[in-house]
Amino acid sequence: MADQEKNLDPPLEQPDQEQSLLQNAQENGQVFEIDGQQQTQKDSDAHQAGRVLNNVKHQDDHKMMRRDIIKKKKKKEKENKLISARRLKRLLRKKPIDKIRLAYQAYFFIVSITVLALSILSYRDQTVYQVDYQQFIDNVKSNVIDDIRFTYTNKNCKTQFGSSYQSIFEYKWPGTQIGCDCSKGFDFSSLTDYNIDAFFSESFMLGRICSQYLLQKNCSTVNEQQQKIFNSWNDGIFGRPFVLCARRQIGIDLQSNQSNCQLQNKITCGNGDNIFCVPQDMSCPITEIGFTTNSEYQNLKQQNNSNKGDIFDLGAGFYFYYIKNTSSLPLVEFRVTEGDKVCRRNSDQNISPNRIDYPLMLSRRQLCENNDPLFQIIHSIDEEQFYLSNNVIYLSEKLPYFNIDAKFNWTLNAKTFIPWSPQCRGELFDQVLQEGDTLHYVYTSLRVQLGVTITYFIVIGLIFNIVGTMTACNFAWSCMATRPESQYNYIFFIEIGFKILLQIAEIIVIIVSFAIIDGKRKIIKQINDDGCVSDPVSGYFFTNLESDLTKFAWSYNLANLVIFAVTLILDLIIIKHSINKGHHHGAKKLQEKEEHQELDVGSPGESGNSQQIKSDLKLQVKAEALQTPF
């Protein structure tokens, strides 16, 4: 009983079950709420990410769709162009060939060839060049010589006697190029003009040194030799070398006669047509030089007057002398050359007949066809003496097959002022010098004209002539397929435009050439008509210069000018003809419209393209709709 009562009393510390379940339910509810909130947040983030991915995907789809549309449009344009070209060909096959414009293109082809030929002949047939005129100017502007000295030890006249002295001559030995000699003792004397160059090219391998492989094959490198200046001379029998030093003076007036010299208070030198003036403080210039073995020559030693001349002992009974104020003009130029002649073009180097110059030379000499008779021989020595005098005999050892042969002679030559008649002195002489200084303008204008003519021939005579001829023969140009009604005139007017521009450019050049050439031609003609020069070289020069300026430059330019004038008139006529006749091949506009309605309607083979165009439009609308933001 006591146990039953005890069991009936509830335990003091036992929790209420309902309260416990409620509490547990509340705790679980909080957990579920938290989890739900987290899940909701995750769902929201996932939804946002999905929207971003969808936007990116839509943008990518839009770009791809635009690229597809562009590709299709380009493809469609290409197909339409090809279709238009086919339609154009069908239309052009119905057209007759335009014979008028074919004749026009043939005419311009002939014109372009003619103009090019005239320009080439005008430039090529010039026999006188700036260097020839410059040779004349250098002579008449040379400073005269009033004193000559000699030296043995010092070959530099300026350091020996002062800045007003210089060597009486300087021969420039051109030097040689490097090479590899694999000839192995070839007999050089057996070579001729026909095989010498081939021999040196094959056996010497010009411009390169020998490789180790070639050295092992007994080849040897031939070192280059620098340019050398020869200014020494000797008596020709192994005498002591010497250098002649000349003092040059300015102030000589070749334009005056005796009365003018007196009016100007100057000394009169020379006589007859060779009278000229020098300042009071200067003696008459040297007019004669030479070498002699006679110490009493012209009694110069007894006179002992440097104003008349002088004589020097060069050793071993060999004398040099100079004389002033003879009937000749002053000596102003000196040349040393192989042989007994100086070339008509004085800068050219002569060589003895039947001799071949050394092939390794940087500048090879040739036998002069014509000579300058105004140069007179002063002295002659053999080649061995000449090379010994200048201390270069070693060249025969340094250069294989370089032959220094005593049987060939070298000569020292002197030249006076070019004789100029008294009636041509004064203003005319000054004009001649001025024209020589500006002669290069003639050749510059001829070169410019030739360049413009070549451009004209290439652009008009070839390119546009071919295009114009093909167009006149109904050739369908793809670039003009979209507007066939204007194809012919469009190309033709481009050709006309280029043609007129080039013709105007050449006409300007020709007019400028006329202005330059005409003044020079008249002056040169006056020189020849008045007989101003008695020197054969100068006479040949001025005669040929007048012929060049008159026959070639003047006549050819006049012919070109007439051709271009006629051509411009013909261009204007053809342009007017094209405008009046209107569209393609001169057909009537109404007929052209009727025939080209086919271009708007299209052929059966082209109707299938309309569906493709509609499809492309739908794709384009859809692409624009995708650009609208959600």
UniProtKB/TrEMBL annotation:
<feature type="region of interest" description="Disordered">
    <location>
        <begin position="586"/>
        <end position="615"/>
    </location>
</feature>
<feature type="transmembrane region" description="Helical">
    <location>
        <begin position="102"/>
        <end position="123"/>
    </location>
</feature>
<keyword id="KW-0472">Membrane</keyword>
<feature type="compositionally biased region" description="Basic and acidic residues">
    <location>
        <begin position="589"/>
        <end position="599"/>
    </location>
</feature>
<feature type="transmembrane region" description="Helical">
    <location>
        <begin position="554"/>
        <end position="575"/>
    </location>
</feature>
<feature type="transmembrane region" description="Helical">
    <location>
        <begin position="489"/>
        <end position="517"/>
    </location>
</feature>
<feature type="region of interest" description="Disordered">
    <location>
        <begin position="1"/>
        <end position="50"/>
    </location>
</feature>
<keyword id="KW-0812">Transmembrane</keyword>
<feature type="transmembrane region" description="Helical">
    <location>
        <begin position="454"/>
        <end position="477"/>
    </location>
</feature>
<keyword id="KW-1133">Transmembrane helix</keyword>
<protein>
    <recommendedName>
        <fullName>Transmembrane protein</fullName>
    </recommendedName>
</protein>
<feature type="compositionally biased region" description="Polar residues">
    <location>
        <begin position="17"/>
        <end position="29"/>
    </location>
</feature>
